[in-house]
Amino acid sequence: MRKKPLKRKTRETIVAWTFMSIWAVGFLAFTMIPIFTSLYYSLSDVILSGEGIIVTFNGFDNYAQVFSSAEGFNFLRSVLDFGIEILFKVPIITVFAIIIAVLLNQKIKGRGFFRAIYFLPVIIASGPVINQLINQGAATIPIVEELGFIQMINDTFSEGLARPIANIFSELIVILWFSGVQILLFIAALQKIDKATYEAAMIDGAGVWESFWKITIPSLTNMVLVSVVFTIINLATFSENEAIQHIKNNMFALETGFGFSSAIAWLYFVVLAVILGVFFLLFRLFTKDRGRR
Amino acid sequence: MKKFSKTKVRHFLVGKSFNDGFIGKMSVYLLLIIIGFIYLFPLIKMFAYSIKDLEDLVNPTVQWIPTKLYFENYRISFVVLNYGYTLLFSLLVTLVPALLQTITTSLVGYALAKFKIRLKVVVFGVILLTYLLPVQVYMIPRYVLFDNFGILETAWAIILPAIFGQGLSSAIFILIFYQFFRMQPKALDESAEIDGANAFQTFMKIGVPLAIPAYLTAFLFSFVWYWNETYISSLFIGSDLYTLQLKLFNFTSQFNMTQGLSQQALNEAIRYSATILIILPVLVVYIIMQKWFVEGIDRTGLTGE
Questions:
Q1: How many CB contacts within 8 angstroms connect chain A with chain B?
Q2: CA–CA separation, B176 vs B3, rounded Å?
Q3: Chain B contact for A266 (CB, 8 A cutoff)
Q4: Cα(B291)–Cα(A142) distance, rounded to whole angstroms?
Q5: CB A93 within 8 A of CB A176
Q6: What pLDDT tens digit does each residue of chain A (293 aa) get?
Q7: What is the CATH number of the domain that holds B125?
Q8: Is B1 within the bounds of a domain?
Q9: Can you give the residue range of the structural domain that contains B141?
Q10: What pTM does this model have?
Q11: In chain B, which residue's Cα lies nearest the Cα of A143?
């Protein structure tokens, strides 16, 4: 009997997987298996010894330790701080990015130049560089400190809130530095708006102000979603973030180690997922509401 | 003969809509310049301070323009950072992984864009997952694995994941290539196939040459992100082989180690000059290739093309 030729789709699948083989092997070895190993570590007591590492399953001991030890509280505290930071930083970054995008979308000369300026921080903002700028006091506008803003914040808010808010003011400019990519995203969205929509609105008697709120802002809705997700992930994995510093520092700490570190890494991921989930829900509710009106 | 009617003047100043008129345009420029200045304020301050000598530093009347050009800070930073050697090592763990990661992710992007694959949704799901899952979740087993391989504290610890497309932000690069290859006309591939080219030949002869802009964009972003990365490299490369970024992070101790016995005390001018030396390589690349960075974002598909 003659051998039946393979179906085209099967053949293509084989070719495609050949192209993806290097990546697939890497994904299994360096990502997939480590993900499960990490989950196992988080449920184990991991001891480093001369002969290698000894892993003993111990259930949820590590997770219990997070909620009962001083080190665990430090971590939870930094996660809480991060949550509060996000509440302030995400709106600041998003609004700033929209304003700059709208300005850059006008018919002006030197648009390329200005775009390059506003994107510049993305290129140079590494953890140590930002760190130096903050520590040397170059991350804020001098006026903020001269007018005693920070003192005012410390006086007004409770201690837990005052610290993150004061941080935001003393790092105001470098916070804006995290909006480079988002600005470009919003510009792309703005350029997709049909010019005819504005003309139609103008004929109907809408002014610039009304057009902005009734046409420009609504057509940015979807991009706000993309931009906020990007911002949250970007901030969550930024190397100066205290929460992820805890994960690294605990790896080699005497009383904690790999097991505990894995556990807080997973907790951190769960918190992130919840933050993103809540945001998605709010976003859904908000846009659905708009659609009905 | 010109006539200045009231409407003409009004149109000149205010325009028919907000952005045509003189006043509207000027306010846009003004806002962009003022905000741009505030935005770049840390950089400007850094440059101004880095060329100040001690006298200028303590003199409150000297704010922005130092009384003289003073490069001693740079000389000290150069020595503290061991700039020549560290730069070479930093480039090794930046350029090599960037290049390899670009090649591997382009293969994946090509496969996803050009072929009908069973379970394509699953592959995309997995790629999206690797973007959303923070590296902290799986870095500890990776650390153990690399320890077993004996490649911790060598450049391999950074290069190896990049070869296999598991480096920094690999998922984003796969999506860039997917978007780009998908836009190429299918007819070209078909004609190559009719001429007897196999899939790999089609990729090399048609896919790659037409996707040079995507390659350049992916490579540049990869380069910059590897350059700025410190979290993973501090864990995997460790304390023996410092990159420039890590030396900046530990600048105080580095300074004490190399300059501890000299008269010079560590001051902010020296710190700023070191920071500038760190950002200089990427800054130069950005100034030359600026267009590729800015337009690259449109190619990620994040913008919903």
A1: 261
A2: 56
A3: yes
A4: 33
A5: yes
A6: 566 677 878 888 889 999 999 999 999 999 999 999 999 999 998 888 777 788 889 889 999 999 999 999 999 999 998 998 899 999 999 999 999 999 998 888 888 899 999 999 999 988 899 988 888 878 777 766 666 777 777 777 777 777 777 778 888 888 899 999 899 889 989 988 888 888 898 888 888 888 888 888 888 988 999 899 999 999 998 888 889 999 999 988 888 889 999 999 999 999 999 999 999 999 888 877 655 44
A7: 1.10.3720.10
A8: no
A9: 77-299
A10: 0.89
A11: B38
